[in-house]
Amino acid sequence: MITNVEWAAQFRQELTGNILPFWMRHTVDRENGGFFGAVDCDLRVDKQAARTAVINTRILWTFSAAARMLGDAAYRETADWAYDYIVDKFWDKEFGGVYWMLDHLGRPLNIRKQIYAQAFAAYGLSEYFRATGRAESMERAKQLYRLIEEKSGEPEYGGYLEARFRDWSPLEDLRLSDKDLNCPKSMNTHLHVLEAYTSLLRVWDDPGLGASLAELLRVTMDRIVDGGTGHFKMFFDNQWTSLTDHVSFGHDIEGSWLMQEAAEVLGDRALMERARALAVRMALAVYEEGLDKDGSLFYEASHGRLVDPNKHWWAQAEAVVGFYNAWQVSGQERFRLAAWRAWEYIEDKVVDRVHGEWHAKLKPDGTPWKAQDDRDACLVGAWKCPYHNGRVCLEMMERLSGRPERPPQAEGLPH
Q: Which residues contact residue 222 at a Cβ distance below 8 angstroms, ignoring those fewer than 6 apart?
């Protein structure tokens, strides 16, 4: 393996030489504002594709974080462009929060209030404030936090309900996508509310927010993590009965480090100790069950058998951070090697060397799916954005900067 300095340089090159330039060059809609909603895997732009709140708020987070860490004026300009579009078009000026989807002219297409989208808006807005100090973005992030707590918080059993109508009244169809179960609670929404609250707490030291984050972290560790298997359970009824045994390896490895990050930002020693142990436990489960022989991550399993052996871009990115974090916590060299091998796979197979950005989805043998064969194959789409791959670069640049090549061996953790 190479040194930390050399590895950090690879992440910086990938971020500044490929990912961010792609989005600035190919996706900014100078005519209608915002960003184009679809670019296929042959770089054909669909200028009339719908735009989702999730993609636009993730773009806001990515370019805000890049501007803060790297100080590049072009990244700040793109963050400003994303912020202005979100506030002007996605923000519901009557009821608050963000719409789920707009058409290419910025007119609301789907006005539901998916809590997942509200969480990403709070995540992006708080990072934008962190990068710019723009007070109005902080106020909007605070408003989203209060709306999530008031309109989505479930007081009897804890956690958050999946979705509301535009005016925050109850909704029958709560699904985040057509692949999900129509159920009141999911792992995915809770994980990203956790992520958003962690980001907001960094810039707003509010006791109520801290209490909400601590309770959400406990709910996540108590109800969503399966202590027996080391995996997340995915879908639930209101009483937290699990409705499926599917396992998402990408979410497991992502959640392993996001839970630890939340505990560290809270500064609660007991929660930190528990989250650190879970981070290693979950990384170990993914290491043992979710890794292919080439170092890449399979997608989903059920009943202990693979049900989706494809390689999705975002899961590979999260594998790098999650395994590296497990190495930092435990000192177990296998996790550092797993992070390195995941990055090698990304560099060799996932990065699109012809068009830029990353292939969205690869077959088990590492060849990219094409749009005519799979609707998820795209460079930009309803879920495809620079958040996961941009974040792995930023996160790893920070973790590798000034760190020793080997952490002290931790005691009392899974081996």
A: none
3-state SS assignment for residue 204: coil
Select from 1, 60, 100, 15 the least CA-distant residue to 324: 1
Question: Using one digit for the tens of pLDDT, what is the confidence trace for 65-102?
Answer: 999 999 999 999 999 999 999 999 999 999 999 999 99
Place of tokens 């090549």: 405
> What amino acid is encoded at 255 in this protein?
G
Query: So what's the pLDDT on residue 413?
Result: 56
CA 64 – CA 76 distance, rounded (Å) = 6
- For strands 225-226 and 231-232, give the pairing: antiparallel
At 411 the pLDDT is 45
pLDDT tens, position by position, 291-308: 999 999 999 999 889 999
Distances (CA, A) of 54 to 142, 192, 284, 327: 18, 11, 30, 31
CB 147 within 8 A of CB 141: no
CA angle at 298 for the pair 295 and 301, rounded to the nearest 5°: 145
The yes-or-no verdict on residue 397 having pLDDT over 70 is yes
- State the DSSP code for 291: B
For the CA atoms of 79, 80, 82, 87, what is the dihedral angle to 10 degrees?
140
Mean pLDDT value of segment 11-18: 98
Distance in angstroms (rounded) separating the CA atoms of residues 410 and 413: 7
User: What SS3 class is residue 379?
Assistant: coil
Report the distance separating Cα 162 and Cα 218, nearest Å: 18
Q: What is the rounded distance in angstroms from the CA atom of residue 288 to the CA atom of residue 296?
A: 12
The secondary structure of 73-105 as a DSSP string is HHHHHHHHHHHHHIIIIIB-TTT-SB-SEE-TT
d(CA 90, CA 110): 10
SS3 292: coil
The pTM of the full predicted model, rounded to 2 decimals, is: 0.96
Tokens of 26: 């190919």
Contacts of 96 (CB under 8 A, 6+ apart): 143, 144, 147
The sign of the torsion formed by the CA atoms of 111, 112, 113, 119 equals: negative
Given a contact cutoff of 8 angstroms between Cβ atoms, the answer to whether 122 and 194 are in contact is no
Tens digits of residue pLDDT in 151-169: 999 999 999 999 999 999 9
End-to-end CA distance of the chain: give it in Å, rounded: 22
- Of 408, 412, 378, 401, the closest CA to residue 45 belongs to 378
